[in-house]
Amino acid sequence: MLEVKDLVVNYGGIQAVKDVSFRVNTGEVVALIGANGAGKSTILKTISGLLRPRSGTILYEDKNIVGMAAAKIVKMGISQVPEGRHIFAGLTVSENLQMGAFGLKDKQAASDQLAVVYDRFPVLKERLNQDAATLSGGEQQMLAMGRALMARPKLLLLDEPSMGLSPIFIQEIFDIITKINEQGTTVLLIEQNAKQALAIANRGYVLASGTVKLTGTGAELLANPAVQATYLGVQPAT
Amino acid sequence: MQTMMQQMINGLSLGSIYALLALGYTMVYGIIKLINFAHGDIYMLGAFWGYYAINYLHFGFVGALLSAMVMASLSGVLIEYLAYRPLRNSPRIAALITAIGVSFFLENGMSFLFGANARNFPQVITTKTYYFFGVGISNVQLLILFTSLVLMVLLQFIIKQTTMGKAMRAVAVDPQAAQLVGINPDHVISFTFALGSALAGAAGVMIGLYYNSIDPLMGMVPGIKAFVAAVVGGIGSVPGAAVGGFLIGLLETGVQAIGLSAYKDAAVYLVLILMLVVLPAGLFGKRQREKV
Ligand SMILES: Nc1ncnc2c1ncn2[C@@H]1O[C@H](COP(=O)(O)OP(=O)(O)O)[C@@H](O)[C@H]1O
Ligand SMILES: [Mg+2]
């Protein structure tokens, strides 16, 4: 579904992503893990069209989407839940969700999808007329996910959805991601919370200083001693 | 008491003009953080369009008002497209200086094309003054108040209820997230300039009727005062701009009423300075709550 090839992304003179390649097959959950500053968010922003790569291609359903406008990419079926949630403060919960469907011309489809999202996140329905800024962190994360789902994406990009949440919410968010995937949405998940991300992922890639260091199935990476030592906080056996 | 009431009415009439102008400043600032110094000149363009539409196309008040709104909208959108959009990713100061340049260009361009002298605005409506307990209110004042209120309610409706209005607010709070939901910020910015400029165009026609005189530099001082009104209300806040406009109008006529006509402009600038010192966020502005 998505194939990223030889991606290089710079910020001015700084190279944040150096020659990264990976793929996401239809129906999968793929995790990109790596420490802070590894270049994960930069990759997602480039896929979504917020950043232009220095070089490389991003094939989505066999079309190169590099250089396309962000709005066009959303219309093609890629939605992103950005790091830090970025819900629209000052807009109500329901207005936020409505904005999620901005690109949907079909009003019926938008209202059907709204029902799906409220069903998935009942707490949003309870708060529909509340200013989104007044939601708790976990609720804001749900709103950000619901907003992204409003566009009925085929591929959902999630940037650190568990960041800053209490353990109980983290578990809930991972359960929801699994359910979203089971209902047919392909997921590319970025996490520092490597353990839980790899546990729900079909495959994963380990990123460090802007390059892919390791790849394998979720289970393989979880069992890999190098991954355990660096990302899972497991002490190597002596 | 009568004089006070009289000044109230005059102040509110003038204030509604400032309010219409201030709304444009505040909306544009809200969305691209630009103080559009050329905004007062859009109001001048609206007044000139009204002048020609009435004199040569024989439009009535409503026709002149609506067509001036359309023409002002188009001018505003064009200015944004040609002058500000290429600087979208430049430092803010570059756009600010460009805005001042656009303002000079419009003022001097109009002086060159149509002459710098003031001209009488055609009085499509014969002024009649009604007296209640010795307080006079003219039909033109009533029309200004009524039209301004209708436009403000309409604006509020657009911003609160329509998809484009919600997209405006979304782009204003978080342009990147707006892009991630499929909003094209350029479209929303054009829409914002169109709305703000339409209000300025309407204000231009109404001030023409009220003061009976227009000239290419007529936008300068009201432009600055409306900017002050926007700051008083809290720049970026739509209700703030409306309230700020009325307050500045009342202040100006109030200062005149106590015999200090010569200082009416100075009083407005004093308010700006005081406001920036005491309450920089304005009456309705958000206190510093920058996200990290
Ligand atoms: N807007 C920016 N300007 C300059 N450098 C940036 C910017 N955003 C991120 N970087 C740098 O790019 C690198 C990768 O950042 P990022 O993609 O955010 O990493 P991650 O999401 O993996 O934590 C880091 O070194 C970071 O400092
Ligand atoms: Mg990141």
From TrEMBL, chain A:
Keyword flag Transcription: no
A GO molecular-function descriptor: ATP hydrolysis activity
Membrane-crossing segments per the record: none
A Gene Ontology BP annotation from the UniProt entry: L-amino acid transport
Keyword Ion transport: no
UniProt superkingdom: Bacteria
Domain ABC transporter: residue ranges: 2-234
Protein name: ABC transporter ATP-binding protein
Organism listed in the record: Lacticaseibacillus chiayiensis
TrEMBL record, chain B:
Gene Ontology CC annotations of this record: plasma membrane
Pfam family, one: BPD_transp_2
Keywords associated with the record: Amino-acid transport, Cell inner membrane, Cell membrane, Membrane, Transmembrane, Transmembrane helix, Transport
Membrane topology: Multi-pass membrane protein
GO molecular function: L-isoleucine transmembrane transporter activity; L-leucine transmembrane transporter activity; L-phenylalanine transmembrane transporter activity; L-valine transmembrane transporter activity
Family in the record: Belongs to the binding-protein-dependent transport system permease family. LivHM subfamily.
Protein's name in the database: Branched-chain amino acid ABC transporter permease
Organism phylogeny: Bacteria, Bacillati, Bacillota, Bacilli, Lactobacillales
